[in-house]
Input
Amino acid sequence: QVQLVESGGGLVQPGGSLRLSCTASGFTLANYVIGWFRQAPGKEREGVSCINSKLGSIYYADSVKGRFTISRDNAKNTVYLQMNSLKAEDTAVYYCATNCLVQFVGSWGQGTQVTVSS
Output
């Protein structure tokens, strides 16, 4: 079965850190662009970060630049999103997909909840 599974979310205090994982099964993730997205309650889903290894490019939304880092471990068929200096406004369900643009993602996994609260 071809799928991406997000994990690593949780409850963290403001200023804390979390590392999210996006693990592929049924295909080799290294051959694909991988994007991280998030959706906060009452808001539209938005792009957070994207990695395109073939072009050697990485994208970050302005709201997370300098705090989040995307990386991939091809041996583990996984892309990570390291999130530091978390803020309340980072609270959302986080998703990964094989695209950088939200409008071109055909289907979504269940995501992983990140809650930043004291």
The chain has a mean pLDDT of 95. The first strand starts at residue 3 and ends at 7. Residues 89 and 116 are 8 Å apart (CA to CA). The chain has no helices and ten strands.
